Amino acid sequence: MSEHDRLRIDYVDHDGVDRLLDLVTYCLEGISLEFDRWEEEYVRGPGLYFAIVSGSTVADYADPMGDDRWPVDKCRYVFDDIDLFYQVAREVATSRDGAVVITVDGAIHGQMVRFRDLTDEELDRLDDVDEVEYADWMGSRHMSAADTSARHEVVATVTLSEEDGRVTVFTDGTFADAERAELGGDWRVDT
Fold first, then answer.
1. Total number of domains in the chain
2. Interval 38-85: pLDDT, tens
3. Rounded to an integer, what distance in angstroms lies between the CA atom of residue 7 and that of residue 191?
4. What pTM does this model have?
5. What is the CATH number of the domain that holds 148?
6. Domain annotation covers residue 186
7. Residues spanned by the domain of 113
């Protein structure tokens, strides 16, 4: 084990990060369940892509997504007001494109980004990732989230599919997803 690895904080099993990941996931599930036009032809639902990162910058592996921004003047931290975070996420899900970057303390970066593909050299250095997992249903947003989750600086990525309302959590290049009919689990109230 290298000196760098011995000093690394395991955010994947960190209580605060677990809570953050749960809040982001439940928020996307709520947005999916709230939208009731998934079955209509030619209708695109809300879509979002969050990346929870351990560093303060993503400049080494991401590029700005044009002028698309998370409105930090309305909501700067996930934990400050969870209802407000949900409202702003719902707005962003229907009006902007790109990934929203959240640091492990819940701070939201304003600039939305496009993550760069992993290079062959980066893939070779990912010693804790055997292979990035993909599924047949994945589009570019989900494949990017899978790749991005394999980076050391990224704790997890979470997506909401604008195609069918599926919510997927990616960690270390693997994923766990829930189709819209499965969202909410035991607490889901069907109307």
1. 1
2. 888 888 899 999 999 998 899 999 999 999 999 999 999 999 999 999
3. 49
4. 0.86
5. 3.40.1700.10
6. no
7. 3-181
